[in-house]
Amino acid sequence: KHVQDVHDSVIRHQIALNSGYEMNTQGDSFEIVFCDVLSAAHFCKGAQLDLLQAAWHPGILKLPSCHVVYRPNGKLLFAGPRVRMGIHRANKGTYIKELNKVTKHVQFSGQAVKVAMLLGDAANGGQILMSGEAMQASDVQLTRSGVVLKHLGVYDFHAKPMPVVLSVFEVLPPGMAKLPQRHMGALRGCDMLQAGEGLQVAEPPVLENSKDSVLVVVVIKVEETMKNLLPQVEDLAGSFAQLFRGYKVPVATHSAPKRQIQFVFEESSDAVRFSLMVQVGLMAALWEDIHPLALNVERNKQGKIIMRGPRVHILVHASNEIDQREIQLPPASESFPFGNGRRISIPNLLGFTANQSPSPKQSPRQSQMQSENGSLRRGWVTSQTYTGLGMMDALTLVEYVCAGQIVVTEAVWTFVQGRLPALTQVISLGTHHLRGLKEPQSLIELSPSCISGRTFPPVPSAHCLVPGYRQAPSLLSPLTIMFAKSPPCPAAPEGITQEEFENLYNQVVTAWCDLVRRLLIRFNGYECKEPER
Q: What is the spatial distance between Cα 366 and Cα 166, in angstroms, rounded to a whole number?
């Protein structure tokens, strides 16, 4: 009775918080209706957390189905009853709404209610499942609000009189949440027909037919000494990519770049925020598989931790020379490594929020799951990958990024100036000729304030055209400072308008600036300030 009372109290409290409607109870189960999928997801997460933190009687916690379980790091994983939950979106025509003539209570029935019950029954204790129908209707709102979705696959639920085939997602808390991320077993009472895509939720970005349209590539490279942690790094990055609508580029296992993970974004600001979050998240994660001595903790002069855990190199590049094509991948889970590694929890040390999200798009995954007669396509999976000069440049550029560093190219910097999260540190790395690239590259280093104490060596370029901040003369040595200023534009001579003359004058000033910069390289000079116009 104590378990039932606490359970019911928790459930009804969360129903009230999330504006739900208690439709029916059957024994220890609740049937609840919400206006939208997002409210239902928040209810489930809130209820699971409240059940975990409830003041259970010590005798209850000795029961086999309610015993306390801790992670190796000491974090509470389970306590009290394990409650299964299922979420499904009821479209028009899939449910019946009627008023009970005796109790005057509104009740719902029909296929949609049955599907929700099937999902709840298939879940493991403490697990939240969601149908593909619900995910497709609300994926942007869910991920933007911090709900992490993991595609478990397509399952055949042995329902009668007609079988039910569903694409199933697991609702996970973000790594920084109080509710722990639990590792569940196989679903109950159903058969998997097609393996899931893990944390791959966002649709592949498409390059628009416009000369100004670009796609943004983020390449994450893991240090050689930490390559065994690549699945965990990929898992964490995949969780953050959902928040910023990043698409993880799938590659055939035989051609995958070693120790590299690639993402594509539509917006430069999303790609940059994602990169900042990954660096901080990796440092703050509670790594369970790394010996304390192998965490390589580094501190700044004030004793604050600025490096911890795996070191990753992150490069952000924007280009309109990126091609999209289909790729055939086997349905085995190793083709989609998101979610296969052990999950890690992250304290809430981040103050970043995502930008306004794009409109939801229909999921190709949903459309390709069934053929015209409703049967499921088995075998290899068709996915989208990216190639082209822009991708090749990004893979080359990441080799010039140091471990623990985020570098963006000038093409990205042009879009994100003035749109960076507060207190982001910006350092110019200069302009360089780099081996493997035809054009000179202007590079910018970004870092969030909490890890801005990290220092890195200069870019190992073939030839430095414009020195960066770290090539500036030392303040500990004597300096010679030169001040050169172009005079203001004089009055236009006869026969030419003032506007035409100012345009001509600006061209002359630009040519003069180019000449000065070439001389700076020749004579080891450093440009402190750009001329004002």
A: 10
Query: In whole angstroms, what is the distance from residue 135 CA to residue 129 CA?
Result: 10
Whether residue 175 contacts residue 343, with contact meaning beta carbons closer than 8 Å, is answered with yes
* Alpha helices per DSSP H over 19-161: 37-53, 111-122, 132-144
Cα 520–chain centre separation: 42
pLDDT of residue 121: 94
What pTM, to 2 d.p., does this model score? 0.74
Cα–Cα distance measured from residue 59 to residue 54, given in angstroms and rounded to the nearest whole number: 14
For every residue of 282-332, which 3-state class applies, written as one string? Answer: HHHCCCCCCCHHHHCCEECCCCCEEECCCCEEEEEEEECCCEEEEEEECCC
Q: Length of the chain, please?
A: 533
Q: Which two tokens stand for residue 252?
A: 């055939």
Phi, psi at 521, each rounded to 5°: -65, -40
CA distance 261 to 222: 9
Residue with tokens 């569940």: 184
Tell me the per-residue pLDDT of 180-218, one tens digit each, with 9 for 90 and over: 778 888 999 999 988 888 887 778 888 887 777 899 999
